[in-house]
Amino acid sequence: MTINFISNSSTIIDNRIENGGYSNIHCKLCRKKKLKCDRKLPNCSRCILNRVECEYVKKSRFYKFQFKLENPKEFKAYTTQQVLFSPQKTLSIGYKDPSQNNDTLLSPLYRASSVDEIIRFAFNYPYTNYYQIGNSLRTDDNLNQKVQSSLDKYPIEIRNNAKSIIIYSLSPTARPLYLLTQKTFWNELIELYMEHFHPTYPLFSLQHFNPNTLPDYLLAAVRLMGYLHRGDRPECITDYLEKYTELVIKKCFYKISLASLKTMYIMAEYYHFTGNVNKRKHFISCITRLSYTLGLHHPIKNNYHLNRYDADLIWSKVALINLKFSGVSFEPSYLVNYPRFLNQLDPYYQVPHPQFNYDPKNTSIPHIIAQCITQNMMSIDIILQYYWDNIRTTNHVERISQKLETKCDKGDIEFEKACRFYDNLLKNYPEHRESILPYKLRLTTYCTIMDIHYFNIDSSDPIPVNLEKIDKLIKSSNLLLSISTNYPHIGNYYTTGFLIAIGLAGLKALKFSNQKQSQIILRNLEICQDWISNKSEHNDNAKLPLVILKYGIKNYLN
After folding, report:
1. Which of 111, 267, 288, 492 is the most buried if burial means most Cβ atoms within 10 Å?
2. Tell me: the pLDDT tens digits for 396-431?
3. 501 to each of 446, 451, 519, 520, 534, how far by Cα in Å?
4. Is residue 226 one of the residues assigned to a domain?
């Protein structure tokens, strides 16, 4: 791997030659043929770049190098004011006499076998000009990402006696880039993000935030937004961070995950603050498309069971608050060591519920990609996660239960997931047991409506055997009867009606079940008959269904 420390003007010239080629017009200074793209210029691109770079070299003084090699002999290489050179000719570290090839002195280069060697050589030795390092990083995209990953992985340690020498030996333009080697600089950017941007858009859980679990494109966006709120922003560091972020965030356009959506949110706000309207519109359009894919943002006309208020509420809660689970680590956050962040711990849930299995190393949610993500249906886990958050913060049990009932009625939520959701709710909030159980009962009955319709009770046509549907009906009837037996005071007219409906469906299911299933269904029907008989004394509407149920059981027994 060959690293060049000064800007390569010949590369620009070569690219222009490939695009246009030479013309028949000669330059007045160098007497050489101009490029076709330079026909309207007074001089050719070669002369213009030479003049600009020579002035820039004189001003910044980055043409002086000092290499400290493994051998005891040291040598110094000085460039001339002319920076035009041939990129094929290199100066190897092993050369004892650099004057053997005069062309190489115009472009002092060194060879490295790995990125780690580059880091050790460039940062751990005194008298290193960091402006040259920044220049090479901005011109080589691959090296940019590799060096940045090395900076994140291995903190740079410089000897105390050489630290002051390095800083004062650098030119004024090169000194700010010395911050790139400091671990405290990168931590400061994350702290600035959490202090200024997180209170407005809580995309992370502060209690369990760990930068090591974030993907590189999301971490780069967080650092860039934190750098925007930094008081001292040198131009060279700004160019480096923007260049690196633009290279890395290209990955988020090809990955369907909440981390990608977070990155787009942060970059859209960054370009809003910096005034780049075109890029902000681009990221907003990408946010919309990715939101449709993830099921977070959906058209109301395709979801007739959601009104505008509910859709906006779900969008604001799920898309901005629940996204904090992307990149959450189950270890304590390193931010707890900073007392100024303790008052910013938002009251929303900070620890993912065990029901939602999020992999901290993989920010994409498996359920979102694997289950029911279409434009007409929202994700089951995101809906339940939103309801869980709303219950924990506002205790609106009745409102949430009604919404879950609506989802179950449409067949959007499975019976098992709905039951687990309410089981976890009862486990974590035992003080609300009396108020949660009735809604769990109603939710469970709604989950069985689709299965009851499957048996088509009013039709006399034969039904194919489906043991899974019968097992699900048995589970539903067992749960309903156990709740009704242990908590008889929560029974009402709706519960009675659902029990009758399950009983009628169970009667028809007896024809297609085996002997063991028939015994369970019959036992549940008898219990259901006794329960309805007690309730019918206080409710005249249950008498007619009770007669039908007794008649069905009698015919089966005969």
Report:
1. 267
2. 555 556 566 566 555 555 556 666 666 666 676 666
3. 11, 11, 19, 17, 17
4. yes
Number of CB atoms found within 10 A of residue 523's CB:
13
For residue 204, pLDDT over 70 is answered with yes
Range of the domain at 55: 14-64
Residues 6+ positions from 279 with CB-CB distance below 8 Å: 267, 271
- Strand, coil or helix: 24: strand
Domain boundary among 357, 390, 408: 357
Other Cβ atoms within 10 Å of 100 Cβ, number = 10
Q: Residue 64: helix, strand or coil by DSSP?
A: strand
Residue 218's pLDDT is 86
Tokens representing 31 are 């007497």
Dihedral (Cα; 320, 321, 324, 325), 10-degree rounding? -120
Last residue of a domain, one of 64, 88, 106: 64
- Decide if 349 contacts 392 (C-beta within 8 A): yes
The two three-digit tokens of residue 46, written as one number:
């070669």
Total domains present in the chain: 2
Residues 6+ apart with CB under 8 A from 488: none
pLDDT single digits (tens) 52-76: 433 333 333 222 233 333 332 322 3
Say if 332 falls within a structural domain: yes
Helix, strand, or coil here: 531? Answer: helix
- Give first-to-last CA distance, the chain, whole Å: 89
